[in-house]
Design brief:
429 residues, alpha/beta, ten-stranded parallel β-sheet, six-stranded mixed β-sheet
Protein backbone atom coordinates (compact mmCIF):
# COMPACT_ATOMS: atom_id res chain seq x y z
CA UNK A 1 0.00 0.00 0.00
CA UNK A 2 1.20 3.49 -0.84
CA UNK A 3 0.09 6.27 1.49
CA UNK A 4 -0.43 9.62 -0.20
CA UNK A 5 -0.83 12.61 2.07
CA UNK A 6 -3.02 15.35 0.61
CA UNK A 7 -2.66 19.05 1.33
CA UNK A 8 -4.39 20.54 -1.66
CA UNK A 9 -5.31 24.21 -2.13
CA UNK A 10 -8.77 24.88 -0.67
CA UNK A 11 -10.55 27.55 1.38
CA UNK A 12 -10.25 25.38 4.50
CA UNK A 13 -6.47 25.36 4.14
CA UNK A 14 -6.38 29.05 5.04
CA UNK A 15 -7.68 28.14 8.49
CA UNK A 16 -4.12 27.07 9.33
CA UNK A 17 -2.45 30.33 8.35
CA UNK A 18 -0.03 31.83 9.11
CA UNK A 19 1.70 28.53 10.01
CA UNK A 20 0.66 26.70 6.82
CA UNK A 21 1.69 29.51 4.50
CA UNK A 22 5.18 28.01 4.35
CA UNK A 23 4.68 24.29 5.02
CA UNK A 24 2.29 21.42 4.40
CA UNK A 25 -0.38 20.98 7.05
CA UNK A 26 1.04 17.51 7.72
CA UNK A 27 4.22 19.16 9.07
CA UNK A 28 2.32 20.97 11.82
CA UNK A 29 2.93 19.62 15.30
CA UNK A 30 0.63 18.32 18.00
CA UNK A 31 2.11 16.41 20.88
CA UNK A 32 5.54 14.92 20.24
CA UNK A 33 5.23 14.45 16.49
CA UNK A 34 3.78 16.02 13.37
CA UNK A 35 0.34 15.29 11.96
CA UNK A 36 1.97 13.42 9.08
CA UNK A 37 4.08 11.28 11.37
CA UNK A 38 0.96 10.35 13.32
CA UNK A 39 -0.87 9.21 10.18
CA UNK A 40 2.12 7.21 8.97
CA UNK A 41 2.48 5.47 12.34
CA UNK A 42 -1.25 4.75 12.58
CA UNK A 43 -1.36 3.21 9.12
CA UNK A 44 2.03 1.47 9.26
CA UNK A 45 3.00 3.05 5.94
CA UNK A 46 6.47 2.64 4.47
CA UNK A 47 5.80 3.92 0.97
CA UNK A 48 4.72 7.57 1.27
CA UNK A 49 4.14 10.37 -1.24
CA UNK A 50 2.53 13.77 -0.94
CA UNK A 51 0.69 16.53 -2.79
CA UNK A 52 1.03 20.17 -1.72
CA UNK A 53 0.28 23.61 -3.20
CA UNK A 54 2.63 23.97 -6.14
CA UNK A 55 4.33 27.12 -4.86
CA UNK A 56 5.88 25.24 -1.92
CA UNK A 57 6.60 21.93 -3.71
CA UNK A 58 10.30 22.60 -4.37
CA UNK A 59 10.92 23.55 -0.74
CA UNK A 60 9.20 20.40 0.51
CA UNK A 61 11.32 18.33 -1.90
CA UNK A 62 14.43 19.81 -0.28
CA UNK A 63 13.42 18.44 3.12
CA UNK A 64 11.90 15.03 2.31
CA UNK A 65 12.74 11.98 0.24
CA UNK A 66 9.06 11.43 -0.59
CA UNK A 67 7.81 12.00 -4.12
CA UNK A 68 6.02 15.36 -4.04
CA UNK A 69 3.35 16.31 -6.62
CA UNK A 70 4.42 13.38 -8.81
CA UNK A 71 1.56 11.91 -10.85
CA UNK A 72 3.51 8.64 -11.14
CA UNK A 73 2.92 8.04 -7.41
CA UNK A 74 -0.78 7.54 -8.22
CA UNK A 75 -0.06 4.40 -10.21
CA UNK A 76 1.15 0.83 -9.71
CA UNK A 77 -0.03 -0.01 -6.20
CA UNK A 78 -2.91 -0.10 -3.77
CA UNK A 79 -3.43 3.52 -2.78
CA UNK A 80 -4.62 5.19 0.39
CA UNK A 81 -4.98 8.93 -0.06
CA UNK A 82 -5.54 10.79 3.22
CA UNK A 83 -6.15 14.46 3.83
CA UNK A 84 -3.52 15.95 6.14
CA UNK A 85 -6.32 17.36 8.31
CA UNK A 86 -7.55 13.88 9.30
CA UNK A 87 -7.00 13.11 12.99
CA UNK A 88 -4.87 9.98 13.10
CA UNK A 89 -6.14 8.75 16.48
CA UNK A 90 -9.71 8.61 15.24
CA UNK A 91 -8.98 7.33 11.73
CA UNK A 92 -10.02 3.67 11.75
CA UNK A 93 -9.96 2.89 8.03
CA UNK A 94 -7.98 -0.22 7.11
CA UNK A 95 -5.06 0.63 4.80
CA UNK A 96 -6.04 -2.07 2.28
CA UNK A 97 -9.50 -3.25 1.29
CA UNK A 98 -12.39 -2.56 -1.07
CA UNK A 99 -12.20 0.80 -2.81
CA UNK A 100 -14.11 3.63 -1.16
CA UNK A 101 -13.92 7.39 -0.92
CA UNK A 102 -15.06 10.20 1.38
CA UNK A 103 -15.47 13.91 0.63
CA UNK A 104 -16.51 16.79 2.87
CA UNK A 105 -19.35 19.17 2.05
CA UNK A 106 -16.95 21.51 0.23
CA UNK A 107 -15.78 18.75 -2.11
CA UNK A 108 -12.41 18.16 -0.43
CA UNK A 109 -11.26 14.54 -0.44
CA UNK A 110 -10.87 13.31 3.13
CA UNK A 111 -9.63 9.88 2.13
CA UNK A 112 -9.75 7.51 -0.81
CA UNK A 113 -8.81 3.85 -0.56
CA UNK A 114 -8.25 2.62 -4.10
CA UNK A 115 -7.41 -1.01 -4.79
CA UNK A 116 -4.72 -1.59 -7.39
CA UNK A 117 -7.12 -2.95 -9.98
CA UNK A 118 -9.37 0.11 -9.60
CA UNK A 119 -6.41 2.47 -9.72
CA UNK A 120 -5.38 0.89 -13.01
CA UNK A 121 -8.70 1.73 -14.68
CA UNK A 122 -9.23 5.22 -13.23
CA UNK A 123 -7.79 8.16 -15.19
CA UNK A 124 -4.77 9.62 -13.39
CA UNK A 125 -3.41 12.38 -15.59
CA UNK A 126 -3.43 14.49 -12.44
CA UNK A 127 -4.48 14.20 -8.81
CA UNK A 128 -7.60 16.22 -9.56
CA UNK A 129 -8.55 13.89 -12.40
CA UNK A 130 -8.12 10.81 -10.21
CA UNK A 131 -10.15 12.22 -7.33
CA UNK A 132 -12.96 13.36 -9.61
CA UNK A 133 -13.15 9.91 -11.23
CA UNK A 134 -12.94 8.16 -7.85
CA UNK A 135 -15.80 10.27 -6.53
CA UNK A 136 -18.02 9.03 -9.37
CA UNK A 137 -16.88 5.41 -9.61
CA UNK A 138 -16.22 4.33 -6.02
CA UNK A 139 -18.55 3.64 -3.13
CA UNK A 140 -18.87 6.45 -0.59
CA UNK A 141 -17.50 5.62 2.84
CA UNK A 142 -19.90 5.61 5.79
CA UNK A 143 -19.35 7.44 9.05
CA UNK A 144 -17.80 10.71 10.15
CA UNK A 145 -14.11 11.55 9.73
CA UNK A 146 -12.60 13.57 12.59
CA UNK A 147 -10.61 16.55 11.28
CA UNK A 148 -8.36 19.30 12.50
CA UNK A 149 -10.15 22.49 11.52
CA UNK A 150 -7.97 25.34 12.84
CA UNK A 151 -4.46 25.84 14.16
CA UNK A 152 -5.76 26.44 17.67
CA UNK A 153 -7.32 22.96 17.61
CA UNK A 154 -3.76 21.63 17.73
CA UNK A 155 -2.83 23.88 20.65
CA UNK A 156 -5.90 22.94 22.67
CA UNK A 157 -5.38 19.22 22.02
CA UNK A 158 -1.66 19.33 22.76
CA UNK A 159 -1.60 18.29 26.46
CA UNK A 160 -3.69 15.17 25.89
CA UNK A 161 -1.79 14.33 22.70
CA UNK A 162 1.52 14.54 24.56
CA UNK A 163 0.32 11.87 26.98
CA UNK A 164 -0.75 9.60 24.12
CA UNK A 165 2.50 10.11 22.19
CA UNK A 166 4.66 9.42 25.24
CA UNK A 167 2.86 6.12 25.78
CA UNK A 168 3.16 5.23 22.09
CA UNK A 169 6.90 5.99 22.07
CA UNK A 170 7.39 3.43 24.85
CA UNK A 171 10.60 4.99 26.13
CA UNK A 172 11.42 5.92 29.72
CA UNK A 173 14.44 6.35 31.92
CA UNK A 174 17.61 8.43 31.80
CA UNK A 175 20.08 7.89 28.95
CA UNK A 176 21.50 11.43 28.97
CA UNK A 177 23.40 13.29 31.67
CA UNK A 178 21.68 14.69 34.76
CA UNK A 179 23.98 16.77 36.97
CA UNK A 180 23.37 16.98 40.73
CA UNK A 181 21.57 18.47 42.46
CA UNK A 182 18.44 17.84 40.44
CA UNK A 183 14.87 17.09 41.45
CA UNK A 184 12.34 14.71 39.98
CA UNK A 185 8.71 14.83 41.08
CA UNK A 186 6.37 12.01 40.13
CA UNK A 187 7.26 8.64 38.68
CA UNK A 188 10.49 7.93 36.81
CA UNK A 189 8.37 5.85 34.47
CA UNK A 190 6.92 9.13 33.20
CA UNK A 191 10.30 10.62 32.27
CA UNK A 192 12.62 9.99 29.34
CA UNK A 193 15.90 11.83 28.87
CA UNK A 194 17.50 10.80 25.59
CA UNK A 195 21.16 10.07 24.96
CA UNK A 196 23.12 13.27 24.39
CA UNK A 197 20.71 15.40 26.41
CA UNK A 198 22.20 17.23 29.41
CA UNK A 199 20.48 18.65 32.47
CA UNK A 200 22.55 21.15 34.44
CA UNK A 201 22.34 21.32 38.26
CA UNK A 202 19.26 22.89 39.87
CA UNK A 203 16.75 21.62 37.31
CA UNK A 204 13.30 20.37 38.36
CA UNK A 205 11.40 17.79 36.32
CA UNK A 206 7.79 17.59 37.51
CA UNK A 207 6.07 14.52 36.04
CA UNK A 208 3.38 14.31 38.72
CA UNK A 209 0.62 15.33 36.30
CA UNK A 210 2.04 14.16 32.99
CA UNK A 211 5.10 12.69 31.24
CA UNK A 212 8.23 14.61 30.25
CA UNK A 213 10.26 13.65 27.15
CA UNK A 214 13.59 15.42 26.58
CA UNK A 215 15.01 14.50 23.19
CA UNK A 216 18.60 13.93 22.10
CA UNK A 217 21.04 16.80 22.38
CA UNK A 218 18.70 19.04 24.37
CA UNK A 219 20.31 21.15 27.10
CA UNK A 220 18.47 22.34 30.20
CA UNK A 221 20.14 25.17 32.12
CA UNK A 222 19.95 25.78 35.89
CA UNK A 223 16.74 27.00 37.54
CA UNK A 224 14.55 25.54 34.81
CA UNK A 225 11.34 23.82 35.86
CA UNK A 226 9.65 21.48 33.36
CA UNK A 227 6.10 20.35 34.11
CA UNK A 228 4.55 17.43 32.28
CA UNK A 229 3.11 16.67 29.93
CA UNK A 230 5.91 18.23 27.93
CA UNK A 231 8.18 17.52 24.97
CA UNK A 232 11.57 19.20 24.41
CA UNK A 233 12.91 18.63 20.89
CA UNK A 234 16.41 17.72 19.73
CA UNK A 235 19.16 20.25 20.50
CA UNK A 236 16.81 22.79 22.04
CA UNK A 237 18.06 24.80 25.02
CA UNK A 238 15.99 25.93 28.01
CA UNK A 239 17.53 28.84 29.91
CA UNK A 240 16.07 29.13 33.40
CA UNK A 241 12.64 28.60 31.88
CA UNK A 242 9.35 28.16 33.68
CA UNK A 243 8.13 25.47 31.29
CA UNK A 244 4.56 24.88 32.36
CA UNK A 245 2.39 21.90 31.37
CA UNK A 246 1.32 21.11 27.82
CA UNK A 247 4.30 22.40 25.81
CA UNK A 248 5.75 20.97 22.60
CA UNK A 249 9.06 22.59 21.70
CA UNK A 250 10.55 21.55 18.38
CA UNK A 251 14.21 21.20 17.40
CA UNK A 252 16.92 23.83 17.88
CA UNK A 253 14.86 26.31 19.92
CA UNK A 254 16.11 28.66 22.64
CA UNK A 255 13.48 29.16 25.34
CA UNK A 256 13.39 31.20 28.54
CA UNK A 257 10.71 32.92 30.58
CA UNK A 258 7.30 31.32 31.08
CA UNK A 259 5.71 29.08 28.47
CA UNK A 260 2.41 27.26 28.93
CA UNK A 261 0.43 24.88 26.67
CA UNK A 262 2.15 26.15 23.55
CA UNK A 263 3.70 24.67 20.41
CA UNK A 264 6.94 25.99 18.94
CA UNK A 265 7.57 24.48 15.52
CA UNK A 266 11.36 24.71 15.70
CA UNK A 267 14.46 26.89 15.20
CA UNK A 268 12.89 29.81 17.08
CA UNK A 269 14.11 32.02 19.93
CA UNK A 270 12.33 33.07 23.09
CA UNK A 271 15.46 33.57 25.11
CA UNK A 272 14.21 36.05 27.66
CA UNK A 273 11.50 36.71 30.23
CA UNK A 274 7.96 37.13 29.03
CA UNK A 275 4.88 34.90 28.86
CA UNK A 276 3.84 32.68 25.97
CA UNK A 277 0.57 30.82 26.55
CA UNK A 278 -1.73 28.70 24.38
CA UNK A 279 0.24 29.88 21.36
CA UNK A 280 1.58 28.34 18.17
CA UNK A 281 4.93 29.76 17.04
CA UNK A 282 6.48 28.93 13.66
CA UNK A 283 10.14 28.55 12.68
CA UNK A 284 12.85 31.22 12.64
CA UNK A 285 10.82 33.45 14.95
CA UNK A 286 12.59 35.78 17.38
CA UNK A 287 10.57 37.05 20.34
CA UNK A 288 12.30 40.02 21.95
CA UNK A 289 12.81 40.30 25.70
CA UNK A 290 9.55 40.61 27.68
CA UNK A 291 7.41 39.78 24.65
CA UNK A 292 4.16 38.55 26.18
CA UNK A 293 0.89 37.26 24.80
CA UNK A 294 -2.47 37.26 26.53
CA UNK A 295 -4.35 33.96 26.40
CA UNK A 296 -7.35 34.83 28.59
CA UNK A 297 -9.81 37.71 28.29
CA UNK A 298 -10.66 39.75 31.38
CA UNK A 299 -14.33 38.82 31.07
CA UNK A 300 -13.56 35.09 30.62
CA UNK A 301 -15.55 34.88 27.39
CA UNK A 302 -14.42 32.78 24.45
CA UNK A 303 -11.57 34.09 22.31
CA UNK A 304 -12.06 35.24 18.72
CA UNK A 305 -9.35 35.13 16.04
CA UNK A 306 -9.17 37.00 12.74
CA UNK A 307 -7.37 35.15 9.96
CA UNK A 308 -7.70 37.94 7.39
CA UNK A 309 -8.04 41.17 9.35
CA UNK A 310 -11.80 41.25 8.78
CA UNK A 311 -14.15 38.59 10.09
CA UNK A 312 -13.53 37.10 13.53
CA UNK A 313 -13.90 33.39 14.26
CA UNK A 314 -15.10 32.28 17.68
CA UNK A 315 -12.66 29.58 18.83
CA UNK A 316 -15.10 28.24 21.40
CA UNK A 317 -12.30 28.33 23.98
CA UNK A 318 -11.52 30.81 26.73
CA UNK A 319 -7.79 30.07 26.32
CA UNK A 320 -6.18 30.96 22.98
CA UNK A 321 -2.95 32.91 22.68
CA UNK A 322 -1.02 34.03 19.60
CA UNK A 323 -0.54 32.44 16.19
CA UNK A 324 2.90 33.53 14.95
CA UNK A 325 4.13 32.81 11.42
CA UNK A 326 7.63 31.87 10.30
CA UNK A 327 10.40 34.52 10.41
CA UNK A 328 8.30 36.96 12.47
CA UNK A 329 10.25 39.25 14.81
CA UNK A 330 9.11 41.21 17.86
CA UNK A 331 10.95 43.97 19.70
CA UNK A 332 11.50 44.09 23.44
CA UNK A 333 8.35 44.70 25.43
CA UNK A 334 5.90 43.58 22.73
CA UNK A 335 2.40 42.87 24.08
CA UNK A 336 0.30 40.55 21.94
CA UNK A 337 -3.45 40.53 22.35
CA UNK A 338 -5.60 37.50 23.13
CA UNK A 339 -5.99 35.42 19.97
CA UNK A 340 -3.45 37.54 18.07
CA UNK A 341 -2.49 36.72 14.48
CA UNK A 342 1.09 37.67 13.61
CA UNK A 343 1.79 37.02 9.96
CA UNK A 344 4.88 35.39 8.52
CA UNK A 345 7.87 37.71 8.00
CA UNK A 346 6.12 40.37 10.12
CA UNK A 347 8.33 42.79 12.04
CA UNK A 348 6.90 44.39 15.18
CA UNK A 349 8.07 47.33 17.29
CA UNK A 350 6.39 47.59 20.69
CA UNK A 351 4.05 50.44 21.54
CA UNK A 352 3.71 49.93 25.29
CA UNK A 353 0.16 48.65 24.95
CA UNK A 354 -1.49 45.55 23.42
CA UNK A 355 -1.13 45.42 19.65
CA UNK A 356 -3.95 44.99 17.13
CA UNK A 357 -5.12 41.39 16.93
CA UNK A 358 -4.16 41.08 13.25
CA UNK A 359 -0.69 41.88 11.88
CA UNK A 360 -0.41 40.92 8.18
CA UNK A 361 2.42 38.89 6.71
CA UNK A 362 5.43 40.93 5.54
CA UNK A 363 4.09 43.97 7.40
CA UNK A 364 6.21 46.26 9.56
CA UNK A 365 4.32 47.47 12.63
CA UNK A 366 6.02 50.73 13.55
CA UNK A 367 4.84 53.66 15.69
CA UNK A 368 1.54 51.91 16.22
CA UNK A 369 0.58 51.47 12.54
CA UNK A 370 1.12 48.88 9.81
CA UNK A 371 3.58 49.94 7.12
CA UNK A 372 5.40 48.31 4.21
CA UNK A 373 8.74 49.04 5.90
CA UNK A 374 11.77 48.57 3.68
CA UNK A 375 10.21 45.75 1.67
CA UNK A 376 10.78 42.05 1.43
CA UNK A 377 14.45 42.20 0.37
CA UNK A 378 15.52 43.34 3.82
CA UNK A 379 13.38 40.64 5.41
CA UNK A 380 15.00 38.02 3.18
CA UNK A 381 18.46 39.20 4.24
CA UNK A 382 17.46 38.84 7.89
CA UNK A 383 16.03 35.38 7.24
CA UNK A 384 19.23 34.29 5.55
CA UNK A 385 21.27 35.49 8.55
CA UNK A 386 18.98 33.80 11.08
CA UNK A 387 19.11 30.48 9.24
CA UNK A 388 22.88 30.67 8.94
CA UNK A 389 23.15 30.88 12.72
CA UNK A 390 21.62 27.36 12.86
CA UNK A 391 23.75 26.08 9.95
CA UNK A 392 20.78 26.12 7.58
CA UNK A 393 20.76 27.62 4.09
CA UNK A 394 18.31 30.05 2.50
CA UNK A 395 17.80 28.47 -0.90
CA UNK A 396 16.53 29.72 -4.24
CA UNK A 397 13.48 27.49 -3.78
CA UNK A 398 12.70 29.13 -0.46
CA UNK A 399 12.98 32.60 -1.93
CA UNK A 400 10.65 31.64 -4.78
CA UNK A 401 8.16 30.25 -2.23
CA UNK A 402 8.29 33.40 -0.13
CA UNK A 403 7.86 35.56 -3.24
CA UNK A 404 4.59 33.73 -3.87
CA UNK A 405 3.54 34.03 -0.22
CA UNK A 406 4.17 37.77 -0.51
CA UNK A 407 1.80 37.86 -3.47
CA UNK A 408 -0.82 35.65 -1.78
CA UNK A 409 -0.91 37.85 1.33
CA UNK A 410 -0.90 41.19 -0.47
CA UNK A 411 -4.62 41.97 -0.08
CA UNK A 412 -4.87 42.03 3.74
CA UNK A 413 -1.46 43.70 4.01
CA UNK A 414 -2.31 46.59 1.69
CA UNK A 415 -5.66 47.13 3.41
CA UNK A 416 -3.85 47.37 6.75
CA UNK A 417 -1.23 49.73 5.26
CA UNK A 418 -3.95 52.04 3.89
CA UNK A 419 -5.66 52.03 7.26
CA UNK A 420 -2.34 52.95 8.87
CA UNK A 421 -1.82 55.84 6.47
CA UNK A 422 -5.26 57.21 7.29
CA UNK A 423 -4.49 56.98 11.01
CA UNK A 424 -1.21 58.87 10.53
CA UNK A 425 -2.94 61.63 8.55
CA UNK A 426 -5.50 62.00 11.33
CA UNK A 427 -2.72 62.27 13.92
CA UNK A 428 -0.94 64.93 11.88
CA UNK A 429 -4.14 66.79 11.02
Amino acid sequence: MRLILLDCPSPSRRNFDPLALSRPIWELRCGMTTLGEKLIAKLGARDVAGFVPEYMADVVRETTAWPINQVSSLQGDDLLLVNARVQADAFDVAPVGPSQVAFDTDGNCLFARIAREDAARLPAESLETLLAAAGKALLPAAGEIALWNYTWDLVLANPAQLVKDFAAAGRRGIEGIVEDPAALRGSRNDVFIAAGARLHPMVVIDAEHGPVYIDQGAEIHPFTRIEGPCYIGPHSILLGAKCREGNSIGPMCRVGGEVEESIIQGYSNKYHDGFLGHAYVGEWVNLGALTTNSDLKNDYTTVEVSLDGKGAIDTGSTKVGALIGDHAKTSIGTLLNTGAYVGAMALIAATGKPLPKFIPSFAWFLEGVVTKGFGKRKLYETAQTAMGRRKRVWTAAQQAMWDEIFRLTEGPRMEAVKKGRRALRQQIG
